[in-house]
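ARCHIVE RECORD
Type: protein–small molecule complex
Small molecule: magnesium ion
Source of inputs: curated submission
Record status: active
Notes field left blank by submitter.
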Amino acid sequence: MGFPFTKAAAILDTLTKNGFRAYVVGGAVRDYLLGRRIHDIDIATSARPADVVALFKKTIPVGIEHGTVMVVCGGHEYEVTTFRSEKGYDDFRHPNTVTFETSLEKDVMRRDFTINALAMDRSGHVIDLFGGQEDLKRKVIRTVGPAEERIAEDPLRIMRGIRFTSELGFELGRAEFDAFRDHCRLLKKISVERIDQEMTRLLAGAFARGALQLLIQTGCLHVLPVLEGPIDETELLRVRFSLLQSDEERWAAFLSATGVTGIHHFAKAWKWSRSREKAVFLLQKYDSLRQSAGWDRVSVYFAGPDRAKAVERLQAAFQRETSDILKDRLNEIDRLWRALPIHARGELAVTGHDLKEWSEEKPGPWMSEALAQIEKEVILGSVSNRWEDIQTWFKVWRKQSRRY
Ligand code: ATP
Ligand code: MG
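STRUCTURE (tokenized, with ligand):
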């Protein structure tokens, strides 16, 4: 077997030619052996950060104190990290001490799971000290060393382990399952940003259902912020997350299924960005609108076609609609959208300026009120989007409503 990471070969060559040892490690080796797409390549080396900086033309010091230098090579970025071991995690975030090491063995021992502790040298030979290849074949997540110890050291590994089951379709080892269950409360020590990051990836995994089941069975789900209360687990396990296409859709589904009301409260506790909070909020709003009234010109106009389609996928994910007709539903939304006379207020043939001239009133809140009404009439087709028609409509409306 040759060396498959051809673009990274030059980096390994430079390091080895200068007397250092260097390997591709972690996720890249795992994903290569699984035939999965490789997204980033991490390199472990005996070279110290200063050596790495000196050897390569373009480097970025992303974490020198932890031994990591980003090497930019052929337009790609590679994390090159000095072999290291870690001791103590008193803050459950950073190891208390990071010690640079001279051997790969010490470096792979600090890694979380056997399937993530694989390394490959420049000749394509896999170095597998903990049976990671066997675990890849058996499709099992096992920690490097005793599960209890490794979890106590860094409880985020619970979320990472379950997230990997979701992405890879693997099982947890027996000892790992027990350790996750027995120590689930340690997750409270982990920053919510890191929990959120893992949870978001967990929901996106091809095997999310199994992973959610593990979160339930180990008791971890109820340790997560805002999820302490009773949850309809059957409902949660019924959701077909694979039909959903964005993190926002998956979170909206997750929150509906777990019965969390009050997106704002959840978003705050989970430190979501404003944009995610808003997107999830709107999806849920249009989801309940769609359930009670279905789509029409007005709701498709205000939701926008992308959000309306996301709502259809939510409907299908909850099996309120069979998924065979999902495609028809999505086409229907496109049809409704295309048939709209305008697609944004800016496309109206009149502006606030016109209204002001017609009514000879001072600008004020009445203008946006009138524009909103005109917008609605145009969308519904009761007034055509022509300047003169809108003017005629406006004059009648003004008289009828005795204003402006
Ligand atoms: P992916 O990038 O798909 O999440 P990955 O395995 O590359 O998978 P990263 O988070 O990028 O995961 O971490 C790179 C490597 O660092 C892992 O393969 C693992 O060996 C090690 N690692 C990451 N996080 C931890 C942790 N919390 N404890 C121990 N080792 C870790
Ligand atoms: Mg990675």
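CURATOR ANNOTATION: The two ends are 81 Å apart (CA to CA).
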